[in-house]
Design goal:
The chain is α+β, with helices and mostly antiparallel strands and about 220 residues long. Helices cover about 55% and strands about 20% of the residues.
């Protein structure tokens, strides 16, 4: 097939492509509305050494994961949940809370996914404050003046609402167009009727000399 033939197929079967794309968009919209809505809140904390010391900075980088582990425990998350009045178990919150140590940026990013925005923000801030408290507790047991301090630089704010209906519909439209194009060519391949002189030439391998017009009724 030449490029012209491909274009002709797309023009001929445009309705197949359009219907498939519309069906995919409608399906994506329906699924997005059926899924439960989730709000993602994010709080950011800065971890800094109080002295310009290479050794202390190495300790800081190695300690950031341990700060995460001090909080990411069902029993600790259960205490935090009760503290802010959430009726959610620590086991469940292990799936909803994500603490990301970023040593290269000296940041600790906390993200929480919950069905209510106020609860999501409250929990993200509470988890961050618990990390600060744990770091302060560790500092109190140390000798000397070298310390690692964790402070909040961004209170919990909304960063994402899922499902994202617009993104899902766009993805559905793209997928529908691709499937529609494939389906159009499949239908064209299965259609073995001869409709034009060009079809006859391709089928028998001989040029057509003329055509008999259909009689008018």
């Amino acid at each position: 097939m030449e490029i012209r033939d491909y274009v002709n197929v797309l023009i001929k079967r445009w309705w197949v492509i359009a219907l498939t794309a519309l069906a995919a968009v409608a399906g994506a919209y329906a699924i997005s509305k059926l899924l439960p809505q989730t709000f993602r809140s994010q709080a950011v904390y800065l971890a800094l050494a109080n002295q310009a010391d290479n050794g202390l900075n190495i300790v800081l980088r190695n300690s950031m994961n341990s700060y995460r582990e001090l909080v990411m425990q069902p029993s600790v998350l259960d205490q935090i949940s009760q503290q802010i009045g959430l009726d959610i178990s620590g086991e469940r919150l292990m799936r909803d809370v994500n603490i990301q140590p970023r040593p290269d940026e000296q940041k600790i990013v906390i993200e929480v996914d919950l069905p209510r925005l106020d609860q999501s923000q409250a929990l993200a801030d509470a988890v961050g404050e618990r990390i600060v408290a744990e770091v302060n507790r560790i500092n109190a047991t140390l000798e000397g003046t070298a310390r690692i301090n964790v402070t909040r630089i961004q209170p919990a704010r909304l960063v994402e609402i899922r499902p994202n209906t617009r993104i899902n519909m766009l993805a559905g439209a793209i997928l529908g167009l691709v499937v529609g194009v494939v389906l159009a060519f499949v239908l064209e391949y299965l259609d073995d009727t001869l409709k034009t002189p060009e079809d006859v030439e391709r089928f028998v391998g001989l040029p057509t000399l003329g055509a008999i017009p259909l009689a008018e009724k």
